[in-house]
Design a protein that fits this description.
The chain is of the alpha/beta class. The protein is built from 9 helices and 7 strands, in the order H-H-E-H-E-H-E-E-H-E-H-H-E-H-H-E.
Length: 255
């Protein structure tokens, strides 16, 4: 996806409206408000591999000012700069070179670590930990369960999906503890699974050209978007921790 400007443009155009981004950003905001903001009025927040800056823009609208981000893709940086955000080049594999000496109260990394090997993920988590102020936190969202793999994964260049077992191992090696985790969306997991399995069936029978696939980042219309958002927000209220879903959301802190 790094060289796919069209995918970044799609993200840029819909991530303020699309139910999935809205719910993810609300989850991040809730964790920051509960765990970090009581300690500091305006915590220093870094969005690592921030894409087009949707989360940073959302946090700014909710009163946060001490915001920065980095991404490896110049396309993503260009779109983020259109939002007048403090986003520059950075590499998850070499975070030591990003703003040396600058420390953060919150580091977010959403749907980006799948580009890395196990060793590189552990290294990235260790680098995140080393850049945290006391009582700082790391917020991560990542693709979950290989069963949910589909054309979206092909379009964005995702080679793998993860489970809590994977991140328990990574976090222990990196000297971190997972203080909160949940899979999501749980209530929509069966229809999502059905769609992804149908896509894979179509791929196997060569009914889909894998070299021309697009991601699922599309606005479904106001009515469907509102229904999906309502279902997922209701789930977040009713289920503190869901056992299954296409994404894994976690909060990590130093041991």
């Amino acid at each position: 996806m790094i060289d796919n400007r069209l995918e970044y443009q799609r993200m840029f155009e819909v991530e303020q409206q699309l139910w999935w981004y809205q719910v993810l950003h609300e989850r991040v905001l809730k964790q920051i408000n509960q765990r970090s903001k009581p300690q500091k009025k305006d915590p220093a927040i870094l969005d690592a591999a921030c894409g087009t800056g949707g989360l940073l823009s959302y946090l700014r609208k909710n009163g946060f000012q001490n915001l920065s981000g980095f991404d490896y893709s110049q396309h993503a940086i260009d779109f983020a700069n259109e939002r007048d955000l403090n986003v520059t080049f950075g590499d998850l594999k070499n975070m030591e070179s990003y703003s040396p000496g600058q420390m953060f109260d919150v580091i977010c990394c959403n749907d980006a670590l799948y580009f890395l090997s196990d060793h590189e993920i552990i290294n990235a988590l260790q680098n995140f930990k080393n850049r945290l102020n006391p009582n700082g936190l790391i917020i991560i969202n990542i693709h979950a369960f290989e069963a949910f793999s589909g054309i979206h994964d092909l379009a964005v260049g995702s080679q793998r999906r993860f489970t809590m077992q994977d991140f328990n191992r990574y976090s222990n090696t990196a000297g971190l503890k997972i203080t909160y985790n949940t899979y999501w969306p749980f209530l929509l997991s069966l229809p999502i699974l059905a769609v992804r399995q149908w896509q894979n069936y179509q791929i196997r029978r060569n009914a889909i050209d894998v070299s021309q696939v697009d991601s699922d980042v599309k606005y479904p219309g106001d009515l469907i978007n509102s229904v999906l958002r309502a279902v997922t927000k209701t789930e977040a209220v009713l289920l503190k921790k869901a056992p299954f879903g296409s994404s894994l959301f976690m909060v990590l802190q130093p041991k």
